[in-house]
Amino acid sequence: TQLEQALRNAIIADAVDVHFQPIVRISDGGVVGFEALARWIDADLGFVSPAVFVPLAEERGFIDALSETLLRKAAEAALSWPRELFLSFNLSSAQLMDPGTTETILATLARVGLDPYRLELEITETAVMTSADTAQRIITDLRQQGVRISLDDFGTGQSSLGRLRDFTFDKVKIDRAFVSRITTDRASEHIVKAIIAMCDGLNLAVVAEGIEEKADADKLNELGCAMGQGYYYGRPADSAATLRYLQEHY
Ligand code: G
Ligand code: G
Ligand code: MN
Ligand code: NA
């Protein structure tokens, strides 16, 4: 298709970019890391969402090439940051089914010179489910090298609690579906509260996603949620804007 060909060309031309969204300590707003988010604007097609082109690359079998490019760019940007903040990078489900993923990631980090301790990989429950044995192997091997694993979009997948018992994660990212309603919907507040308590008990770090208003941040702080992310703190921005953001925020 036209889209597929355009994406292949963009990867070869190094035209797929990566933006960064801050992740902060909710108690004082201090920046602790950034999530890398792929961005692509095609000359003919205009803006194409990664929600479209990542699944396409998976389906057509070139997610490895795309992801390697993105991780390289993200890691290079992370090296330019004035502080040793963590870099959070999304891993797709196809990558968790591929035993070669561990080596690809570690090789990219080594080439760029980013310490594995600074990398976090965001994976979803659905991705872990599709190929549990391979996924577990990849997670175990990468964690052994210092890479941390976050469970992304927590609360929206299937049998979430079982995943937490059977797999080893370092962090849980509470889906914005709950966070966005936290000040207006009692049920959402209770769910978020329960997730935070559970993560405390399981020794998992926790991040609330999709914080858009100060009131959300205040409520999450009151509930003891340590980290947050969302438009209230900052939108995804390119690497130059991210460096400026870091000069203006501590
Ligand atoms: O930021 P945005 O709404 O455009 O992201 C849409 C979706 O694309 C999200 O689910 C996000 O996790 C995913 N995504 C963004 N960048 C990447 C990437 O580099 N790799 C993978 N696998 N998914 C990504
Ligand atoms: O699936 P994942 O959680 O990786 O994707 C994160 C998505 O959420 C990205 O598309 C990102 O642009 C988007 N996002 C980040 N912060 C906010 C926010 O405060 N509100 C909304 N609606 N989307 C957000
Ligand atoms: Mn994510
Ligand atoms: Na998420």
Automatic annotation (TrEMBL):
Residues 1-250 form the EAL domain. This is GGDEF domain/EAL domain-containing protein. It comes from Neorhizobium galegae bv. orientalis str. HAMBI 540. The chain holds residues 193 to 442 of 451 of the full protein.
